[in-house]
């Protein structure tokens, strides 16, 4: 009686666990949260596919039908509904890997229980426990916002993407082949083979993650050296201004003495000559006002980004002004490397846009409302409704990835909002923080 109950419970819950795990893995790997309605709908569809495929008589069809249809379902949802920023190859990779992750842990457990000679009753109980533990792990990963590799990273590394896709499809075919032979009782148990299969699946997930983190670390080191170089450049500019002030101060007493003597002798000719030849000309030699209020920015990395872009602007003869209404120290957001990359992209676009205009000026404003505002003039015709689309750019030599990256980033950060305004031939980018 108890054995029959376990078999019935396993038959009813197995497909449900499978559908939930597969949908959740796709949700995690794709990097974007599926709405509750679509999440439940996808679970229901995969559950129906699993139940229907179990009733198919041919072992070969049963072994390949469910996984193929599930991959198609996940791929369709990703392309049609949610993840239009990613390429179709990235979505296909996420769909295939999701099916592999669903069965990756169960196969070694089944092998161990079978080779250990456990009874069918204990095998059913172990399968149920593994499903429960797997579901708990998936829920924890979703709660802690586990992030795999963003679509932009994979699209920027097409060779790695194609390699991962080929390996994942090979593993999927291998898994179907194993299931087919298992159904025909021609399958030779081997725990080592299953462990190698599991390690290959884990490698598909971990290798691109580690490579991405390595690139981020490398970018941080490069940004650090760029910030040091920019800081040295800025210090040199301040020293140059200070030297000009000292030079002017050195001559200032002589100018005042000659002007005082001309006034005492009421020699209007000497007064005019002193004004036009010395004072007025010296005004042109006075150094410009220091425009970067870096002391008002408590975030050292944000200072570094602005200094690097200040140096870049100077190389393009672009003038950057910085205005900070109050001490900008917003601790309500997680300022990771992507946050500074967003600010850098906005400044790069602004500098490049004004370099083609006569008014070579970029204004950076940190408002009291926790807004980072970047204002610049522009020359090209810009379609404001398309600028956030992946691949669109107003410049022929650009791939249009920058603003699409900003869109994806702000979608994943509920406390950051990005908006674009075009007004009076001014291109205004706003990051509303917190």
Question: Strand content of the residues, in percent?
Answer: 5-15%
Work out the number of β strands. Answer: 5
Element string (H = helix, E = strand): HHHHHHHHHHHEHEEHEE
Largest β sheet strand count, sense and barrel closure: 5 strands, mixed
Keywords: Kinase, Membrane, Transferase, Transmembrane, Transmembrane helix
Domain Sensor histidine kinase NatK-like C-terminal: 337-432
InterPro entries: HATPase_C_sf, NatK-like_C
Protein name: Histidine kinase
Brief descriptors of the model:
2 domains; 13 helices; alpha+beta; Heat Shock Protein 90; elongated; five-stranded mixed sheet; 67% helix
Q: Could you give the topology of this structure?
A:
Layout: H1 2-30, H2 36-54, H3 59-82, H4 88-104, H5 106-115, H6 120-143, H7 151-156, H8 158-183, H9 191-264, H10 268-285, H11 300-315, E1 319-324, H12 337-354, E2 361-366, E3 371-377, H13 402-412, E4 416-423, E5 426-433
Parallel strand pairs: 1-2
Antiparallel strand pairs: 2-3, 3-5, 4-5
Transmembrane segments: 6-26, 38-54, 89-105, 125-144, 156-175, 195-214
Organism: Leuconostoc citreum
InterPro entries: HATPase_C_sf, NatK-like_C
How does this model look, in words?
This is Histidine kinase. The protein is 67% helix and 8% strand. The protein is α+β, with helices and mostly antiparallel strands and 434 residues long. It has 2 domains: 188 residues, no CATH class; 144 residues, 2-Layer Sandwich (Heat Shock Protein 90). The protein has a 5-stranded mixed sheet with strand order 1-2-3-5-4. α12 links the parallel β1 and β2. α3 crosses α4, α9 crosses α11 and α12 runs antiparallel to α13. The radius of gyration is 32 Å and the shape is elongated. The two termini are 59 Å apart.
């Amino acid at each position: 009686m108890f054995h029959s109950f376990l078999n019935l419970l396993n038959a009813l819950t197995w497909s449900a666990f499978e559908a939930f795990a597969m949908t959740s893995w796709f949700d995690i790997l794709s990097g974007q949260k599926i709405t509750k309605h679509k999440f439940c709908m996808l679970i229901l569809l995969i559950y129906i596919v699993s139940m229907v495929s179990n009733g198919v008589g041919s072992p070969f069809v049963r072994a390949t039908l469910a996984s193929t249809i599930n991959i198609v379902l996940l791929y369709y949802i990703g392309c049609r509904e949610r993840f239009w920023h990613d390429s179709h190859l990235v979505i296909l990779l996420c769909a295939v890997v999701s099916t592999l992750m669903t069965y990756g842990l169960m196969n070694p457990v089944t092998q161990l229980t079978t080779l250990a000679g456990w009874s069918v009753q204990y095998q059913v109980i172990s399968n149920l426990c593994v499903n429960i533990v797997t579901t708990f792990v998936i829920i924890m990963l979703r709660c802690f916002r586990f992030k795999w590799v963003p679509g932009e990273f994979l699209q920027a590394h097409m060779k790695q993407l194609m390699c991962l896709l080929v390996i994942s499809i090979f593993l999927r075919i291998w898994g179907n082949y194993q299931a087919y032979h298992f159904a025909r009782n021609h399958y030779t148990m081997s725990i080592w083979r299953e462990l190698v299969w599991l390690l290959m699946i884990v490698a598909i997930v971990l290798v691109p993650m580690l490579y991405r983190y390595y690139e981020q670390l490398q970018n941080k080191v490069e940004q650090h050296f760029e910030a040091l170089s920019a800081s040295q450049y800025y210090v040199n500019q301040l020293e140059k201004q200070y030297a000009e002030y000292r030079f002017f101060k050195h001559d200032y007493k002589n100018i005042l003495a000659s002007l005082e003597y001309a006034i005492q002798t009421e020699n209007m000719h000497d007064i005019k000559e002193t004004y036009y030849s010395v004072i007025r000309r010296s005004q042109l030699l006075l150094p410009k006002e220091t425009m970067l209020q870096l002391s008002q920015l408590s975030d050292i990395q944000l200072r570094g980004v602005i200094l690097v872009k200040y140096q870049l602007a100077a190389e393009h003869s672009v003038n950057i002004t910085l205005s900070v209404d109050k001490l900008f120290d917003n601790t309500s957001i997680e300022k990771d490397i992507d946050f500074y990359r967003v600010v850098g992209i906005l400044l790069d676009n602004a500098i490049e846009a004004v370099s083609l205009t006569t008014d070579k000026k970029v204004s950076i404003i940190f408002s009291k409302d926790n807004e980072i505002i970047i204002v610049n003039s522009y020359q090209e015709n810009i379609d404001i409704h398309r600028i956030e689309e992946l691949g669109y750019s107003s410049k022929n030599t650009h791939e249009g990835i920058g603003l699409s990256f900003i869109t994806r980033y702000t979608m994943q950060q509920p406390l950051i909002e990005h908006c674009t305004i075009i007004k009076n031939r001014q291109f205004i980018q706003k990051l509303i923080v917190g």
